[in-house]
Specification:
Layout lengths: L1 H21 L9 E3 L6 E3 H5 L3 E7 L8 H12 L4 E7 L10 H11 L19 H9 L9 E4 L6 E4 L9 H11 L6
Parallel strand pairs: 3-4
Antiparallel strand pairs: 1-2, 3-5, 5-6
């Protein structure tokens, strides 16, 4: 009886910690998406855990496509401080290539993107992917390509930045710095 009680008391912290670990993922990121031009999946919960996250709807044939360079520079500059950038290509504004291989070439080869890129999906309206449905409900739907959504590590604070917001040297970068410097709950 004492051994059973001891075993139960030892196991109790493990049983209690499992739900805490499972619930540390904001609902917004509690999903998997297919990686761009791949059969592999991106586990958004794992990618974003305890990280400041910048979500961007992208397109390969847009006047803002050159922002890939700035987004990559932003990612390189702040990833070791806790920033992750995730791109979501979309043809909702009719400026994405039809073939994902071509989209991948633009991102990975032409612009040297190393941050995670999801497969092409819808980002507006009732058929938007779950991430953009949540972002739109929390702030506003993207009005064009390269809208940016800055999400705090715990997923409670979400800020929207329009397509015209430059990745470096402006309000977006200032907001990223401020979010990275704000301690998250429980730390």
């Amino acid at each position: 009886m004492i051994r059973t009680l001891k075993a139960a008391l030892i196991a109790l912290p493990l049983a209690v910690s499992i739900p805490a670990q499972a619930s540390d993922c904001p609902a917004l990121f509690d999903t998997q998406v297919r990686k761009l031009h791949s059969k592999a999946s991106l586990d958004l919960c794992e990618l974003t855990r305890d990280r400041t996250t910048l979500i961007v709807n992208t397109a390969s044939r847009c006047g803002y496509t050159g922002q890939f360079k700035g987004l990559e520079a932003l990612y390189q500059q702040y990833k070791d401080q806790g920033l992750v950038v995730i791109g979501f290509p979309s043809d909702d504004f009719r400026q994405e290539l039809d073939d994902e291989a071509d989209t991948a070439k633009v991102c990975y080869i032409n612009y040297g993107v190393t941050f995670p890129m999801a497969a092409t999906s819808k980002v507006k309206g009732s058929s938007a992917n779950p991430v953009f449905q949540a972002l739109s409900n929390a702030t506003e739907a993207p009005g064009w390509n390269f809208n940016k959504y800055l999400v705090s590590p715990e997923g409670k604070n979400i800020r929207h930045f329009p397509a015209s917001a430059k990745p470096l040297g402006g309000e977006l970068e200032s907001a990223i710095k401020a979010t990275l410097q704000t301690p998250t709950l429980g730390q």
